[in-house]
Amino acid sequence: MPEGILCNKQPIVTDEQLKLTLGDKGGKQYYAEMEQLEVDTDKLWATIQNTMKSRLKTWLNICARCGLCADSCFLYECNDRKPEQVPAAKIHATLGEIVKRKGKVDNAFMRRTMDIAWSWCTCCNRCGQFCPHGIDMGIMFSYLRGLLFSQGFVPWELKIGSGMHRVYKAQMDVTTEDWVDTCEWMADENCEEWPGLEIPVDKEDADIMYTLNAREAKHYPEDIAEAAILFHVAGENWTVPSEGWEQTSLTLFAGDWEGCKQNVLHVYDAIERLRPKRVVGTECGHAHRATVIEGPYWAGREDGQPPKPFIHYVEWLAEMLRTGRIKIDPEKRIKELVTLQDSCNYVRNQGLKNITREIVSYLVEPGYFVEMAPNKEYNYCCGGGGGFNGIGKYRPQRNIALLKKREQILDTGAKLVIAPCHNCWDAIRDLEEEYPMGIRWSFLKPLVIKMMIVPEHLKPKDEEGEEE
């Protein structure tokens, strides 16, 4: 069977196909069809010839398989240091073999390669810091995922995630109407406690346009309210777009290159339409990487920059604390051991390590912040990045991958983990569920709201005009 009903070489582009694939609980039919999916070897080799640029070719050729990348990989360490888990071994056994065979590989090989590409690597890019030649296996695995996606060999959940973006312009089935209604709901829900609070939609020429993760609109609307409260207290002139508000990219995890471009263009179109002075993206690592770091290149922007300055939420929050537009009550600072999870995608890949620690310096009483070891750009992946968190087929492997982060957190003695990234937050939540150790985890927004000094004019008044 060359093409299945659910598992095939075409991306999901209709609501009908999306619902049909979603109805296959756990991907049972999908994976059964995958076992019969024929590899278009001619197309595979043609794709490699057309897309594999000199950098990847050079990396494959100059890799000496010296093994210096081994200890850089948390999956190698978590899986009993098996030789086949060494990053160099993983890429040569997969991408290297495809190139060596000029695309002449079979179904069994592609299914095995899919398993390695999504459960043996999170594309965290840590290995590239230790290779004497600067070879980055994370980038190579991202490329490999694209080849696999084009042939239909992609995990069921990520086929669906890619389809969600293409059909709904978001990683979840949140329509424009749903999104705008959620903004109105959150503003109404919080206006009594925060008089004058608004979530402006499609306001032109604002100082800030805010973009976020569709999970917030779908499952955690309080996060949208928290962002609004902090913009309100800081006195920001801000807005959200009715379309182009979704910053995340499951297409990035899936290897859906064309889908990645579409996602970015939705956001960039909103920027061009509303003309904000700058854009702030939510506490999400891969969303920032997809839209700000890699996004300009997918969108074909020659300057390598988004249409307007585009910063991560931690950069905006640090600026507000630094300038005093948001002030922290010293009496409310955290006075227990706390540690910080560095997100691979905006710490290792954009260098925002000191920004997050500047924020911590305002929130945590001196002497109570404990670094993980290693930390900053050398910190390990949370254990669930690159789509690993959401793939049921690989949940046992993901749970093993969490053990490195568990070890790091236990070594700090901290009971509170600040995790300004959705994937990290999810992984640490799951870590506590799988291997209970009595920890808590939090984004930055709720912590700041609990500790900040609210200006008198923003406090609610009782019926007689007195402060409550």
UniProtKB/TrEMBL annotation:
<dbReference type="GO" id="GO:0016491">
    <property type="term" value="F:oxidoreductase activity"/>
</dbReference>
<keyword id="KW-0249">Electron transport</keyword>
<keyword id="KW-0479">Metal-binding</keyword>
<dbReference type="InterPro" id="IPR017900">
    <property type="entry name" value="4Fe4S_Fe_S_CS"/>
</dbReference>
<dbReference type="InterPro" id="IPR009051">
    <property type="entry name" value="Helical_ferredxn"/>
</dbReference>
<dbReference type="InterPro" id="IPR054810">
    <property type="entry name" value="HmcF"/>
</dbReference>
<dbReference type="Pfam" id="PF13183">
    <property type="entry name" value="Fer4_8"/>
</dbReference>
<dbReference type="InterPro" id="IPR004017">
    <property type="entry name" value="Cys_rich_dom"/>
</dbReference>
<keyword id="KW-0411">Iron-sulfur</keyword>
<dbReference type="Pfam" id="PF02754">
    <property type="entry name" value="CCG"/>
</dbReference>
<dbReference type="GO" id="GO:0051539">
    <property type="term" value="F:4 iron, 4 sulfur cluster binding"/>
</dbReference>
<dbReference type="InterPro" id="IPR017896">
    <property type="entry name" value="4Fe4S_Fe-S-bd"/>
</dbReference>
<feature type="domain" description="4Fe-4S ferredoxin-type">
    <location>
        <begin position="60"/>
        <end position="135"/>
    </location>
</feature>
<keyword id="KW-0813">Transport</keyword>
<protein>
    <submittedName>
        <fullName>Fe-S oxidoreductase</fullName>
    </submittedName>
</protein>
<dbReference type="GO" id="GO:0046872">
    <property type="term" value="F:metal ion binding"/>
</dbReference>
<feature type="domain" description="Cysteine-rich">
    <location>
        <begin position="338"/>
        <end position="424"/>
    </location>
</feature>
<keyword id="KW-0408">Iron</keyword>
<keyword id="KW-0004">4Fe-4S</keyword>
